[in-house]
Every structure is written in C-alpha cells, then in structure tokens.
Amino acid sequence: MSKNSTYDPFDTLTKLTVQMENQVNDLVYQLTDNKEFVGLLKRGTNIQALLQERLNKNNGLLASKLNIPTKNDLADVAKIAIQTEEKLDSLEEQLWNLTDFADRTNREIESIVAASSEVLKVAKQLNSELAELKKDQAELSELKKEFTKLKEEMSSMKEFITFTISSELKKGTEMKQKKSKQAEPVTSDNKN
Amino acid sequence: MALISQLMNNIPSMDFTKEQKRLNRFINRLNDPKPKVNQTPRQVVWKKNKATLWHYPAVEKKYETPIFLVYSLVSKAYILDLAPGISVIEQLVGRGYDVYLLDWGVLGYEDKGITFEDYIVDYLQKAVRRALRHSNADEITLWGACLGGVMASMYAAIAEEPIKNLILTTPPIDFRAVIQMLPEKWAEGILNNEINIDRFVDVNGLIQPRYMYTLSRSISAPINLSSYTTLLNHCYNDKFVDKWSRMDMWTKDHVPLSGEVVRQIINDFIVENKFIEGKLTVRGKRVDLKNIHANLLVMTAANDTVVPEEASLPIMDAVSSKDKTYETFMFGHIGMFLSDKCPAYIDKWLESRSKQVQN
Lengths: 192, 359
Hints:
The complex is a heterodimer. Chain A is built from 3 helices and no strands. Chain A is mainly alpha-helical. Chain B has an 8-stranded mixed beta sheet, with helices on both faces. In chain B, strands 7-8 form a two-stranded antiparallel sheet.
C-alpha cells in the first residue's frame, strides 16, 4: 500500500461479514435439511396450535364471564360492516347500469327525435309545396277560364265572321244576279 | 530509524473526518424518523374493506390505455412508490400512463376467511371495472408483480373485462419450482404433507406479520448481518443511507395474511400444483391459462432467490396469446421494482400496444 491510500476497515468488515453470513446460512440449511428438523417443525406448529386453541378457549370463557366481546364477536360485527359495504357497492353498480341504460335510451330517443324532426321538416316542405301547387292550380283554373272565355269569344267571332262572309257572299251573288238580269233584256231587244 | 520511517510509510492512513461522519450517521440512523413513502400524487377511486384503489394521473397523458397494478399479498405495495427517483409508479406516470394500483391494505382478524376466489372476484375484478369506468378507457393493461402476478393471471383467465396487455414480473406460476429453493427435506416435508398447516390455520385464522417475516427470512437468508455492515460501510453517503432505510423499513413491514390464502397456497398451489395444471376454479369457473389471449410480457430476475426463472417460464407455453415477450433482468427479486430499467422496458413494450391519446 502506498502512503497516499487511505485504509477503510469497513470494506474488509463488509467482505468478511458477507463471507461469514453465507457460510453460516449454508450451515443452517445443512443442519436443518433433515427429517428430524421437519418433524420438529411439525411438532412446533402442532404445539403452537394447541396452545393457541386453549388460549382462545379460555379467552372466550373469561370474556363470557366478564360479559365482554371476544375477538370473534368483534370480527362478526366487522363482517356485517363489510357486508353492508358490499351491498352499497352492488347498489352503486346497479345504479351505474341504470345510468348506462338511461344514457343509451336517451341517445336512442335523441336519434328518434332527430329522425322525427327530419320527417316534420319534410312534411312542412310538402305542405308548402302543396300550398304552392294549390296556388298554381288556382292560377291554372283562372287561366282555363280565360281560355274558355277567349274560346267563346273566338267562336262568336268566328260565327260573326262566317255570318259576315256568308252575307257578303250572298250580297255578292245577288248583285251578280241583278247585274245579269239587267243585261238580259238588251240582248233580247237586239234579237227582236 | 529509516526502517521505522519505511514502516510508517507503508501503514495506510485513515480519513478521520470521513470515519467520524460515518459513525455519527450510523448512530443517528437509529433515531431517524420513518422515511416518507408513496409521494407520487394520487387519489382514491374506490375503497372496499381494507383495500384501496388508487389512481396516479399521468403527468402528461400520452396513452388512453391505463396500467392497472396488482401487487403481492405478503408485503406492502409502497415498494412500487418507495421514493422520488426510484419509484416505478412515478416513472410510469412520467411516461404518460394513467396508473391504477390496487392496494390490498392490512387485514384484520375478521378477514381470516378471505380466499383467492374472494380476492379475484370481489376485489380485483371489481377494481378493474372501476378503473375502466374511472378512466373511460376501452381496454386496460394489467401488471401483476410477484404473487400479484399469479392473481393477475388467474383473473385474466376468467375475465370478462377487456384486458389488452398482461405484464407479469417474477410471477411464481409453478409453485413446485419455488419450493425447490428450500432445503430438500423441507420441500419434501411440505409436498408429502408432513408439515400440515390446516390446524395451524384453523386456530390462528390470520397469519401474523412476524410469521411472514420469519418465513421470508428462512427462505432467503436466515442470518442477515451483511445488510448492516454494508450500511456501516456506506454510512457517509446520505443517498445510500436514505435508500437503505427505505428498503430496511419495507423488508420488515410485512402484512398479515389470510389463513385461507395460506392454506390454498400450500395445499392447492404447492402440494397439488393445481394452478399450472389448470385444475383451479374461481366461483365455478375453471382457471385455464389457455383463456388468456392478451399480449403477454413476462419479466424475471436472474438473481432472484425467491422466485426462480423456472417458476415463471411455464406461463409462456400455457397461454393462448399470440404476442408473447419474455425478458430477464440482471437484478434480484426486489431490484426489479427499484430500477428504472423495468419501467423503461415496459414503456417501450407498451408503446405500440397501447391506444394513444388523439390530439
């Protein structure tokens, strides 16, 4: 070691402890890794159970004489509290389900309302179209009346024109005949 | 004289200031207040009996699919949020995930009869439903750690809820492989029913934390001194001492376990090996791992002295998932929850398997 290096005794201590610990633990496992130790463990747990059983029994007897609750009595009360908590939880879960169901129903209603508003919109549109159609129809009937009137006027005009033409034609024919009658005696006088 | 001088030169000197600080810190540590844990902002979503469903909102939400954490029944869940900087939850929320944690709480004597079935149907399934409703998400990522991994797998096998991804960290799926870690005769004693715990469970009801601590010590290392000498060695380092204190507090902070759960672990999971053989039922439904179709990520620790890789591997072939990933990290059992490597890997894996927030 050089003069400048510092000595850390705890480094060595740690290394030694780790080594020693491993060896001791190995030794413990070696010493206990046998049937005898397992049997001892079995007897130990049985004795502990027996002693605990008697202690519990005596504790119960003493508690009943003193009229005080045992640990089991308190545990029973605590269990009731836990059961109540579970019931509350289950109620809360049912409430969730109901809320979810209500939400789903609301959504469905909203979609139905949306659909029906569409239908209403279409109906309104149809109504307004119908009103327009009626208006058109009224206008058309007016037009029809006017046409009929026109037709009537035209037919009367036709009659008038026919009458005028025929009377004119008649007049013309009569005039022709008159002219031809006037011309005929001159010709016979000449012959005579 | 020259010889003495040479000898003196060769004797290493000691840094007395450093040694003084070390010893002061070591002595003071005994009077230190308990470290504060669970510092990531969170809120209660649901409470049932002793269990609490916590919500840790994402710092800046990037993913719609939340992560639901299921921790083990044998120790406290604050290992997942031990301290800022080494908190798994903090890292996940920082990466844009909403995190939910089901903390089982500390059981009372009245809970001695709770079984795995109760935990899965009455607690886990309901909590997942609550988380789904709370997050308004269409699907969820389920992350089970240690024994929580077994529970998450059991639930995933019977779940009606949309589980998109299933992440398991050191899950003891094959309990037979776990007890192979014990000395041979102990394992034989358990398998041959020589150590029958039925009467012990009947009488005690609730298995007290001191038993759980002794059991965990006897499995990992019955004698433990190196932890304290390591503390002494690094006592001048405040950051190390802080982390050590937190770890020390957590390793001794066990929770009582329901007697019925212990009975099920010994009789159903270890002796009869029902889980991996698909013989377990939960409220009449068979727990068949073939029913799991979610994307699966299994993470194990190479230096795990509690759950060896062989105990976790069988799930890879047992599930029906098409998307399966297996990853081993060079950590111990607890190191998996203290490093930023696991959350980073999970984030990378989940990125393409989670629904992203639409802007």
